[in-house]
Amino acid sequence: MIYVFYALFIAAIFGIIALCDFLLKKLLPKPKHAAKDNVVRMPRYCFIMGLILTMFAFFALLYVSPAEHRALWLSAWVVLAMGVFLLFYFFRFGIFYDDEGFTYRALTKKARSYRYEDIRAQQSFLARSGWNSTLYLTDGELPLSAAMQGVDKFLNKAFYRWCEQKGIDPDTVENNPSMLVFFPQPEEPEEP
Description:
Helices cover 44% and strands 20% of the residues. By secondary structure, it is an alpha+beta fold.
């Protein structure tokens, strides 16, 4: 009898995973520039931490009695919310690109599509976690970091397509590909 319970429990887990997969595909459709290998995602540890926090909190909620350990039970709900937030952020954020342009989708913003010629400048700096960079676009900014998956491939492609769309020789642009700095620095505002 116990083996039947285990089999049903495992089947229920796979059913929940399939349901979550279906719901995520409905909630987070792929943009028009979506290609399997042309995407920039959040770091993998964001997904792993979200999964660990969610599972830890889920099991804590199953075994902790709210009547006896109210603070622990409420803490498990907070940890569950953090884990779900990390998972949602990992799946929601993305930069999807092809030869013509890219689509940037953030956590709270609607997906926006850009052409490579919309890139105005790039500013990078080193931090303890690695380098961070900002691409300045015609109507916004695109934050990047070294920990993101596929960011080096995206910047390399964006630079050469930017040069092509603007009619610039890539050798005339001062850049540092080893530090993933490809575009010119933003212009300093003139002092009055």
